[in-house]
Amino acid sequence: MKRQLEALMEDCLIHGDISQLVSVLRKEGMTHCMLTRLDQLVQKQLSGAEYDRVGVVLKSLEILVENKDDLKMLLSHGIIAKVLLWFQTLHDVLIANPLRSSAQLLTLIENFYDFLLLLSQSPLPVIRLSVLLLELLQMVLEPEVPFTLRLEVSVETALLLLLLLIIMVIIMGCSGVVIRPSEPSTASWSL
Predict the structure, then answer these.
(1) pTM of the predicted model as reported, rounded to 2 decimal places
(2) Which domain holds residue 94?
(3) What pLDDT score does 75 carry?
(4) 190 - beta bridge partners?
(5) Distances in Å between the alpha carbon of 144 and those of 21, 95, 150, 156, 191?
(6) 184 in a domain, yes or no?
(7) Per-residue pLDDT tens for 2-60?
């Protein structure tokens, strides 16, 4: 059964069949085991520089997270950690040799931006949201990343970080926590 599922998923990737992959994932259920198999498949595709195939997975996940129940299940089984790991792998590839970046790699990174931004608009706990946004911000600040990618993400990320900061200030204000500078001459902050 395990091999059959992997073969079905891999066939969807080879043919770029997003809707079929969504069907397979829904049929199998959003379980930890299924997510682990998907993770292994994506890692295999990333190691082989099969960026278009990883894009099929991301597009399928975008469809799945539009459904509240599917989103809840994916979040409970660690989709954020897996997606961030995949994104970090791409980041490392891009940074290792930015001049040899393929159009497929850059397109996939843009797809990751879109997916991470989509996730950041979901009802996530503040800590998960901040991790997502910080990962995006890291890419924006990386000088080796092509300027067009950094520019595309910087505005959306900055707005979401501002929103997160406002939410945190409201939460802290409601709980009686006061934010003050640790020392007048430093830029660090303490609670």
Answers:
(1) 0.69
(2) 2-176
(3) 84
(4) 180
(5) 34, 6, 10, 20, 35
(6) no
(7) 678 788 888 888 898 899 999 988 888 888 888 888 898 899 988 888 888 999 999 99
- Classify residue 157: in a domain, yes or no: yes
Amino acid at position 34, single letter:
M
Tokens of 113: 């931006």
181 forms beta bridges with 189
pLDDT: which is higher, 68 or 147: 68
Q: Is 187 part of any domain? A: no
Interatomic CA distance for residues 12 and 57, integer angstroms? 9
Specify the number of domains making up the chain. 1
In a domain, residue 181? The reply is: no
Mention every residue, 6+ apart, whose C-beta is less than 8 A from residue 14: 53
pLDDT tens per residue, range 181-190: 444 444 444 4
Query: Using CA atoms, how far apart are residues 181 and 173, in angstroms rounded to an integer?
Result: 16
